[in-house]
Design goal:
This protein has one domain: Alpha-Beta Plaits (2-Layer Sandwich), CATH 3.30.70. Helix content is 31%, strand content 29%. The protein is built from three helices and four strands. A hairpin with a 6-residue loop joins strand 2 and strand 3. Helix 1 packs antiparallel against helix 3.
Length: 104
């Protein structure tokens, strides 16, 4: 019997007080996170509907990989670097992949 895939997806929504500084912090974070074990994909997006809003969408091979990433020094560094750059705390949502899959 094949092992069940437990894809975990995380969205993190940031509203910028300083968009250019926040962009630099999040771009660095995304590049570093791509190298973390279990990271299947991570993207940095800008909201077309809300100026200054940036969203990070990441897909993880398992809930354990996602949790290990959230406990990582790279995640802590990103969170610390966001101090003073946001208009409110980020909104974070943890999603279970129902039909999420990789095309490649």
């Amino acid at each position: 019997m094949a092992a069940e895939v437990q894809t975990t997806i995380v969205t993190m929504e940031f509203d910028a007080a300083d968009p250019s500084s926040l962009l630099a912090v999040l771009a660095k974070y995304v590049v570093l996170a791509r190298g973390h074990e279990g990271c299947r994909n991570i993207d940095l997006c800008a909201s077309a509907a809300t100026p200054g809003r940036m969203v990070v969408i990441s897909k993880w091979a398992s809930p354990a990989a996602q949790q290990a990433h959230f406990d990582s020094p790279d995640m802590v560094e990103m969170a610390t670097a966001c101090t003073g750059l946001l208009t409110r705390p980020p909104r974070i949502d943890l999603l279970e992949g129902i039909s999420a899959h990789d095309l490649a």
